[in-house]
Structures are given as C-alpha cells and as structure tokens.
Give the backbone structure.
Amino acid sequence: MFQWMRVEERNLYKTTLSSLGQARNLRLVFLQKKSVADQIAFMHKILKLKTQDLVGEHLLQVWFMKGQQDLLRTFCDRMEIEHDGNGQVIGDLPETLDDTKLAETINRLLEMFDSKVVTVYLYVFNLQTPDGWDNLSKILAEDDRLKLA
C-alpha cells in the first residue's frame, strides 16, 4: 500500500508521512532524508498505534478505491452488489450475503488476487456494518487462507 501511494498518489504519501511525523514531533524534512524503506517502516510503526486508527482507515479506503478497483469490481459483481463500475457501492449494502455466492466469490478472489490483499479487503468490508455479516465473520475466523498474521 505504501509503495503504491508513493508511486501513484505522491501527495497522499507526503501528507501521510508529514501527519504521522507530527504525531511523533518529527518534521517532514527529517523524515524525507530517510530511505524509502525507513520511511515506510516508520509509517507502518506509527499506524499500529490506536490513536492513528482513523488515518489507517482512510489510507485503506483510498488504496482500495483507487488502487484495487479490479478487486472491488469483482467482489461486487460476483456478490451482485450494485456499484458505480469502480467498486463504489451504490445505495445500501445488503443486509445478508448469500452463503454460496460468498464462498464462490472468495475462492475466485483468492485465485485472481494476492491472498493478503483479499484478506484485508474482506476484513475492511466486514467492518462496513456495525456487526459485520455473520457468514463472512465465520469464514474470516475459520478459513486459514484468510489469516491476517
């Protein structure tokens, strides 16, 4: 995600680095002198802090909406969720997810995309309703292909 931001969304990368630096009283100039690997390690470390949850959530949203549109489109199409052609859901999310479609969709996503990206997307998607969807929560808890750690 950070590498994508650095290449595709340079202003977002710079703003994020600056914002996270301010959280540690570090100036952007100081952070920009570090290697890219060190900058990314720094951002990753700071984003693990509970106080940075909103920043992390925003970055994931941007990354998925701009950098992972094929994944979003595929998921929405296969789950028959109306969207704008780029994966942005139109209207309300469904109250339930069909078990068979969900299982088939997850299998297809795992064939087409990196399993870690699919996993993060499914976890983030499941957070879009207060309690998530029971069947998706169960799959995320039980399917070894969808482990975050």
Residues 53-67 form the longest helix (15 residues). The CA atoms of residues 71 and 109 lie 7 Å apart.
